[in-house]
Amino acid sequence: MARQCDICGRGPQTGNQVTIRGKAKYLGGVGTKVTGISRRQFKPNLQRVKITVGGGNRTVICCTRCLRSGTVRKAVKAAPFRLPGEAGGAKVAAAAK
After folding, report:
1. What secondary structure letter does DSSP report for 65?
2. Pairing with 61, which of 10, 23, 30, 40 sits 20 to 30 Å away (CA)?
3. Is the pTM of this model over 0.70?
4. What is the DSSP pairing of strand 13-21 with strand 33-42?
5. CA 75 to CA 52: how far, in whole Å?
6. Distance (Å, whole) CA 12 – CA 14
7. 54 backbone φψ class: left, alpha, beta (φ>0; ψ -120 to 50)
8. Which of 49-58, 59-68, 74-83 has the weakest average pLDDT?
9. What are the residues whose beta carbons fall under 8 Å from the beta carbon of 85, sequence distance 6 or more?
10. Quick check: 84 pLDDT over 90?
11. 3-state percent breakdown (helix, strand, coil) of the chain, nearest 5
12. Quick check: 28 pLDDT over 90?
């Protein structure tokens, strides 16, 4: 189960690769013709991601659809850098003026 999303289970799907030649009629040609049909695999866009599960970080293989939809949240590596005198109150005070 290597090429499969650990969250939603998306895996490879089979389909056809259609080879076409010719120029479309609306572009001034005589029309397109199918010259070959062969089987192919559509593979999901899988990423190796660190997520937080039960208080600890774990690496999972996850599809980008789960990442974009918010089903999976990435683990926070470190808190963002802040200057020692700045607590975020300076922006609030400046906005109030």
Report:
1. H
2. 40
3. no
4. antiparallel
5. 5
6. 7
7. left
8. 74-83
9. none
10. no
11. 20, 35, 45
12. yes
